[in-house]
User: Fold this.
Amino acid sequence: MRFSEEFLSELRARTDIEELIGKFTEIKHRGSRTPVALCPFHAEKTPSFVIYRDTQSYYCFGCGAGGDAITFIKNIERLDYTESVRYLCERAGMNMPLDPVDDEYNRLRRRCYEANREAARFFYSTLSTPQAEKARSYLEKRRLSPETVKRFGLGFAPDKWDALLKHMKEKGFTETELVSFDLAKKTSKGGTIDAFRNRLMFPIMDLRGNVIAFGGRVLDDSKPKYLNTSDTVVYKKSQALYALNFAKNNSERKLILCEGYMDVIAMHQAGFTNAVAGLGTAFTKEQISLLTRYCDELTLCFDSDEAGKKATKRALSMLSSSPLKLKVMHLQDGKDPDEIIKTQGKEKMNTIINSAVNDTEFALNDAKGRVDTSTEDGKLNFLNEAVVILAGVDNAIERDLYVSKLSEELSVEKRAIEQQILKQRRFMKKAHENAQFDVARSIASGEEKISSPNPEKRGNVRAVKAEEIILASLLRHPDYLRKLSGILSAQIFVTDFGRRYFEDISSRIMSGRSLELFSFSEDSDSEEMSYLAYLFAKGAEISNSLEECKQCIQTLLEEKSKKNVPDVGKLSSEEYLELFRKKRDKKKTEGV
Ligand SMILES: [Zn+2]
Assistant:
């Protein structure tokens, strides 16, 4: 749902961010210009979470969480955008607007839902025609019942260039629409063809059961094996999970995370209706916060081959800061759940689910698997790794349990292991405090050490700093855009990241749209909101003068010219002399 700017600014006026955050964490220096608090999003002992009253934003210098009131509620209560607005609305005693603003964006979204639903119908009905013989025999081999096929809306995209296109045009959709919904593609020759051809089709649904995207699997050896819809007006793959629309209704608040569509479907057919899967990308923060809304316990069910183990470790490290109770299933011999159910039955699968181990045990087993504990050397290596793993377990009772087990298993004195763990914990605490101290010192000295989400920062530190000052100044002084016109443009930005934000901010300024953090909330994900909040935070620290911006523009031009230095070997001697002169002059002015 999209809200009008009037409504949002009213909501913002009635929401005090300090008071709101104060409900979740204790605030120090209440009422001052920049109150601080212990960050509610990561564990810390000294506060690095700063609230900016003037921009009604927050930014944590420890973990990089940041945003406006809506982002705060989204992340802390794990609600989606509309629900967060509703939360703040109720809190402020306001009514939610009944009708969504009927603008072009909403119209496009509605069309996209309609088109996807129609396409899903088309693929499903094609599955029972003679041309889908291959797809049907594949489903039979996988032993999927007609009920399962219907429930998941599986279908077939014909082996033709324009089967879906023709059908959709008859239903009143235009080529432009179909291309923008990623159901069709433009060819290099300017023609338009179906995006999915000769594939088994898996519709992807949102929580309300709307079809928002498709996954298509080949039925032969062609590549890629799976083809997925790119992001559209209704679909962001980093924010969706396959089959969560079915799995969310489990009353036990336990979910099983599988690797692929077929695993999930096989699990559901066997009665494990709480299985979900990611959508062909690395696991994201958005997906974690989505999971946390529907479960307290998450069991990872990835293949037991090397790739699967790696995926498990990556997911565990992503999930380690979430409040979820984590478990890992052990599937023997590189088998996937689909195969286990097919060959050994669902009882076997049930046993495997029930014997899933927690994340600590998984890490210990993994460490043990890599050494030979029958040798002294292997034993020692394993013990060292185990100490590091167990030092990370905060619960003393749980820790003690593992230490006892370990001491028995390796016939090492329990007290010796405990001492090592204690030492490791002290070391970790010290490292943590040092990191905290660094953060505090860098805030105090105005130099940030915190990581920037800009992937090009490495190697462009000076340019990125200048870009950030320009962007932060523009957010506070939109009139600078006009004052700097002629020297400030998207072309002078060195990093893509900076350029993208410049384009967004300047187009807002030029079209007179709001620059309040609040107004960015709807179209930005948590990471983008954090970065914007960081820019707002930076704006509070810098001088914000026009002069400073001009200097930064100069810096960017210099940095850019450094990057544009051509390959010296390919220059004519005149060009080479010119370059040499430029460099010499620059050194002079810098006084080097
Ligand atoms: Zn934090």
